[in-house]
Model the fold of this input.
Amino acid sequence: GNNLAAEKGEHQLRFTIDRAAADDADVCFTAGALQYIEEPFADIIARLPRRPRHILLNRVPLWDGDPFITLQNNGAWTVPYKIDNREQFVQSLLALGYDLIDHWRTSRTLQVLTSPGHFVENYHGMYFRLDESHERE
Done:
C-alpha cells in the first residue's frame, strides 16, 4: 500500500503493520487477520494514545458460542486460529466509545473437523465510528 501511494504521489495515505505507528490513524482497516492475533482487538485499540475515528473490519470469524482457539492447517503450515463470540466482540468496541454503523455477513464458513459442534456459519464485516464525545481520547 505504501509503495502504491508513493507511486501515485499520495502523501495523506499510509499503511502499517506496526501497532505503535497506528497512533494517529483516522482509519483502522483489517481483513482476514484478527483470527491470527491472540490479543483481543479492543485491547489493541484501547492502548493507542489516540483511537482511530473509523474501524473497518472484514472477514472476521465470529460466532454465538464461547470463544475458542483451534488450528488452521493448510498443508505446508499449521497456525492457531481464534474464534471470538460475536456479541462480546461488538460490546468490547462499544465500550471504547464506538458506534456500530454497519454489519454484514460473508458466505465464508468454518467447520472444525475435530469438534463438529464448532461451526462458524458466517464471517463478519463491520464498520465502527468513534462517538464524537470520545473522539481523540
